Amino acid sequence: MDRWAADYQDRANFLCVGCAGPNLSSQFGQELKLASCINAVCDEGDMPSWGQLGCNGFIVLDGDHKVVKASTSPFQQVRGLAFKHVEALVDALVGGQPVPKFCPGQFVYLQNLNTASLNGELGVCLVQSEDADTRVEVQLQSGRKIKVLPKNLAVASEDDDEEAADADAGSSTAGGCGSGGCSSSDAPSKDGARARDSSSEGGCGSEGGCGSKGGECDGSGGCGQDSKRACTEEQEAAELEPRVPEPRVAVRQLESVKVAEMDEEHERCADAMEVLCRDRTASSLRRVLREFETHFRHEEELLDEHLYSDVVGGGAATGFSADTSARKSHFADHKRILTDIRQECERINSEAADEGAVVPEAFAAQVVAEFEKHADQYDGHYADRMAESVSAKQTATASAAESSASGSGSD
Question: Which of 4, 99, 276, 409 is 20–30 Å from 34 (CA)?
Fold first, then answer.
C-alpha cells in the first residue's frame, strides 16, 4: 500500500486504518516503514460496522467517497492477482474511466458457451476486461486456461469465492496474515518489488480506500501509467507464481505453542517432512498430507472451542472483530497448504503409478518452508490464549469431577 501511495502520489489516497488500538497501528507502521500512505486508527467508540478486510481484501472508494468495491480479491486465494485487482480499479478511477467489469483476481462463472460442459465452471480472471469484443483469460479450478468473451462470464459471489478456496484444485498460492495481522513477503509494488514481512497479534485491522485520476492498466503485471511501470514477462510470472525456496533437508525445531497435543502433532508433521525431503516418493508426500490434514482439522476444532466460540456461534460483534479476521486468515492458509500438496499428489498420480515416483526437490523444500512460515505467522500468536483456556477448562473439569465424587461419597 505504501508503494502504491508513492506511485500514485496525489492522484489517489491510500489509508491503512487500524481497528485494534493505537499500539498495533504504531507497530504496524514502524515495522512496514510506512511513509507515503495514511496510517490511522479508529477510536474504541467509532469502530466500523462493516468492511473489516486487511489481507482478505481492500475497500476501494471513488473521488466522492462512494464505495466502488467493498472487497477486492483476497491475497490468500489469488496471490499477486489480488494486487492487480486493486490496481485495475484505481487506474480506471484516476483516469476518469469506468471500472472494468472483470478484473484480475476476480472469481467468475462461465456461461452461455457452445461447449456446454464448461458452463457453470468456476475460475479466476487473469487479466481485466477491455471491451465487449476482447476476450478475457480465465484459469479454471482444474488449472486449464481459456479465453472467453465478457458476455460469457458472470462475477461469482463472495460465498463462491470462499468455496473456490476450499476446493482441492485452484489458483491459490502463498501468502497470509499472522493472526490477522497482514504479513507477506510476496506483496509486489508496481515495479515488481516486494514488501517486508510483518506479523502482529490482534487481527489485521486495515481497510484500504482509493480514488481520484490517472490511466488504464497495461495488464503487464505492473498496471501502470507509462513504460516505466511496465513489467517483463518474467517479472509477471514471478509475481503470479510462488517463489521456490532453496532445497533443504532439515526441518527446524518449531516453537512450542504451549499445548501438548498441538506440539506433538507438530513433531509428527516435522517427522513426515523429514522423510519427504529424504525420500521424495509419492508415499512420503501422502504421509505429509495425512499428518497435515489431521493436525489442521484438530487445531481448527480446538481454536473454535477455546478462542473463536463467539465467532462460530454468531456471538461476535457485527463490526470489527479481531478473532473473526484471525480465524478466517488462519483457516484459509490451512486450505491453501493442503491444496498445493493435493495438486502435487494428483500430478504424480497422473504421470506415474509407480510408488517410487519422485517428488521434485524444490516442491519438498517448499512444503517445509510453507509449514514453518505458517507456524511462525499463525500458531505462535494463539499460544498464550489457547494454553490459558485449555488450562482453565482442565481445572474446571477436575473441580467438577472432584465435586461429583464428594457428592457421591456423602450419599
Answer: 99
How big is the CA angle at 296 (ends 293 and 301), to the nearest 5 degrees? 125
Q: Give 195's Cβ-side CA count (13 Å radius).
A: 23
The domains located in the chain, with CATH, are 2-214+228-240 (no CATH), 260-401 (1.20.120)
Rounded Cα gap, residues 237 and 174, in angstroms: 14
Contact 338, 299 (CB under 8 A): no
Contacts of 307 (CB under 8 A, 6+ apart): 323, 327, 382, 385, 386, 389
Digit-coded pLDDT (tens) for 284-308? 999 999 999 999 999 999 999 999 9
- 86 close to 208: Cβ distance less than 8 angstroms: yes
* pLDDT grade for 185, boundaries at 50, 70 and 90: very low
Strands 38-41 and 15-18: parallel
Return phi, psi of residue 271, to 5°: -60, -45
Which triple of cell numbers denotes residue 122?
A: 468456476
Q: How many CB atoms lie within 10 A of CB 23?
A: 12
CA torsion 76-245-142-154 (nearest 10°) is 30
| Cα angle, residue 134 at apex, residues 87 and 224 outer, rounded to 5° | 25
53 within 8 A of 207, measured Cβ to Cβ: yes
What is the percent of the chain with per-residue pLDDT over 90, rounded to a whole number?
34
Q: Which residues face 177 on adjacent strands?
A: 182
pTM recorded for the entire structure: 0.58
User: Strands 145-148 and 60-61: what pairing?
Assistant: unpaired
Bridge partners for 123 per DSSP: 108, 140
DSSP state of 44: G
What DSSP line would sit under 332-376, residue for residue?
HHHHHHHHHHHHHHHHHHHH---TTPBPPHHHHHHHHHHHHHHII
Do 92 and 98 meet the contact criterion of CB atoms below 8 Å apart? yes
Residue 44 C-alpha cell reads as 474504541
The 8-class DSSP code of residue 176 comes to E
pLDDT tens, position by position, 323-373:
887 888 899 899 989 999 998 998 888 776 555 568 999 999 999 999 999
Report the chain's mean pLDDT, rounded to a whole number.
Answer: 76
Beta bridge partners of 176: 183
| Residue 169 banded pLDDT, cuts 50, 70, 90 | very low
Helix 260-279 / helix 361-374 crossing angle, nearest 10 deg: 170
